[in-house]
Amino acid sequence: MEFVEITKENIQLAYNYFLSLKTTIPTIYSVSLPAFTDSFLNEYSEGEQMFKELHAYAAIDTDNKIKSIIQYGIPNYEINYDGERIYSSRVGAIRWFDVTWLHEDVGKKLLDRASTFFIEHGISKVYAFSNDYAMSVYAYQGKLYQSEKKIHTFLRLYGFKRHTTSHFYTISLKRMKPYMHNDGINFEPDERIQNRQFFTIKKHQTEIGGMEVYYINSKTVYLSFFYILDDYRGRSWGLQSLLAILMMFKNLGYERLDTDLNEDNSIAIKLYSRCKIGRIGKGYSYIKEN
Q1: What is the pLDDT of residues 75-127, one digit of tens each?
Q2: Is residue 55 classed exposed, middle or buried when 0-12, 13-18 and 19+ CB atoms within 10 A define those classes?
Q3: In this predicted model, what pLDDT tens digit does every residue of 268-284 receive, in sequence order?
Q4: Closest C-alpha among 68, 69, 21, 77 to residue 47
């Protein structure tokens, strides 16, 4: 088993490994090599570079395939509870880690490498599988999907605790019955940036909320976030807006909409249930503080 750093020259190895996980993790999508490379090596968020320093290492077997991989680094900022970016904060992040039980010793060596890096840089607060520092490969490849129990066990061995829990959802727009709405809801799009686009939600020309979507492919769209402004909640406008969102993408020819919600967002969870958006599993983020 050989340990190698993943760079632009050998990124194909990581790309192949990433796509191989699609069979067991429904939140991973087929993406192009250029999109994966941009996200993996030089991630940006809202126009800002996400990391000051970023490293990736993999264990390569004699068949020249990855058996275990880790990516970690130092973000340019930390996001507080109110969603504000704190640039003076010094935190670390493990944004991708994967290993099988057959290579448990290899997984420990990769985590040892990351742990040593954080200690050498004086970092005592480390996030793992956080959407704030995740690969945004067409959607958020952030939280650890519930089927990856082995990774959870490894993280616990190294002192990580669960930080947040998300629910993943999907709905078949193709099977959805047409909803003829006449409630004054319309959507004003911003400029599309690559595969991402923000929409202002309006009711009778008054802004009442917003949403952001990722266009996964010609058939699937990912609802990254959706909100109704505080002054307009409690009037059923959230339900009207969500139904209108689903119908808009159905009418545009999309066959599936995926999304996720934090577990503590009980109002939105009930709303998604009313719209028959089905839950397909949970995902977890982690934190370690010394």
Answers
A1: 999 988 778 899 988 999 999 999 976 778 899 999 999 999 999 999 999 99
A2: middle
A3: 999 999 999 999 999 99
A4: 77
What fold is seen in the domain 2-159?
Aminopeptidase (3.40.630)
Task: Note whether 218 and 142 are within 8 A (CB).
Answer: no
Q: Which residues of 216-253 are buried (b: 16+ CB within 10 A; e: fewer)?
A: beeebbbbbebebeeebeeeebbebbbbbbbbbbbeee
- 131 Cβ contact partners less than 8 Å away, ≥ 6 residues apart: 140, 142, 143, 166, 285
Summarize pLDDT for 209-244 with one digit per residue, the tens.
999 999 999 999 999 999 999 898 888 889 999 999
CB 223 within 8 A of CB 153: no
Residues 185, 201 contacting (CB under 8 angstroms) = yes
Question: 41, exposed or middle or buried, with CB in 10 Å at 0-12, 13-18, 19+?
Answer: middle
Largest Cα–Cα distance in the chain? 63
**Which H/E stretch holds residue 110?**
helix 104-120
What is the Cα–Cα distance from 265 to 271, expressed in whole angstroms? Answer: 10
Place of tokens 């607060």: 125
The end-to-end CA distance of the chain, in Å, is 32
Helix (H) or strand (E) holding 269: helix 266-274
Q: How far apart are CA 78 and CA 90, in angstroms?
A: 8
Pick the CATH number of 171-282 from 3.40.630.30, 3.40.50.300, 2.40.40.20, 3.30.70.260: 3.40.630.30
